[in-house]
């Protein structure tokens, strides 16, 4: 297979990613609700960095839910942070990298807090990001996200990529010169790009790899999802990745059959 065909396979594989990961997450929340939108971001994106505790995402969502259920007045950011600390018994919080860690205005200069609430300033993180993409302000949207404590370039691109896919029909991303910022580059995507193009230097920059995907794919956001899924969920090791990329079509076909078999087994179990 040539690279164009393989890129097409990755674009199609994104359908599996969306069914298994994107839709279940996004369907849980009211996207036009500002707090729900922030909860979605906190559950699915904000803590997706290496070394983070798997308890952070559910604790963040629960800390917000407890505040809303209590129907109390007061400083929302501080109350949510306190709930978060209580839920985790003050263990491993790492406030310097936690987007929920809010500094009381009494103890910091105006506008110096970079918790998620202060950076968003009452904006809906999903709607404002979507509107920015629609207006061709991808770089501005990305820059705002990376201002949030603990949110690095990859997480910002990860979130904006999924926003772009969610609202694809309303956007004209092909005209955006900063579309590469919608390409999160992790070890799996990097390995696949380098496998497909031997001319790419092993020390290639994040930006160069992202621009390669945009230049080679008609639907680069979908391609990016498919690349990640192929590496992280199908291959799972570098050895198997290199092997599977020799015949990605056969590998994907086998994987789909496995998913279908598992789904059928679950349906039979439920009807038993």
List the helices and strands and how they pair.
Elements lengths: L2 H24 L7 H13 L9 H15 L5 H12 L28 H5 L4 H10 L3 H9 L6 H14 L20 H10 L9 H11 L3 H16 L2 H7 L3 H24 L1
Helix pairs in contact: 1-11, 2-3, 3-4, 6-7, 7-8, 9-11, 10-11, 11-12
Question: How does this model look, in words?
Answer:
By secondary structure, the protein is an all-alpha fold. 62% of the residues lie in helices and 0% in strands. The protein is built from 13 helices and no strands. The chain has helices at residues 3-26, 34-46, 56-70, 76-87, 116-120, 125-134, 138-146, 153-166, 187-196, 206-216, 220-235, 238-244, 248-271. Helix 2 packs antiparallel against helix 3 (56-70). The longest helix has 24 residues, at 3-26. It is globular. The N and C termini lie far apart (43 Å).
In angstroms, what separates the terminal alpha carbons? 43 Å
- Biggest pleated-sheet summary: none
Oligomer: single chain
Q: What is the helix tally?
A: 13
Radius of gyration (Å): 20 Å
Summarize the structure.
The protein is mainly α and 272 residues long.
Structure characteristics:
single chain; 272 residues; mainly alpha; 13 helices; globular
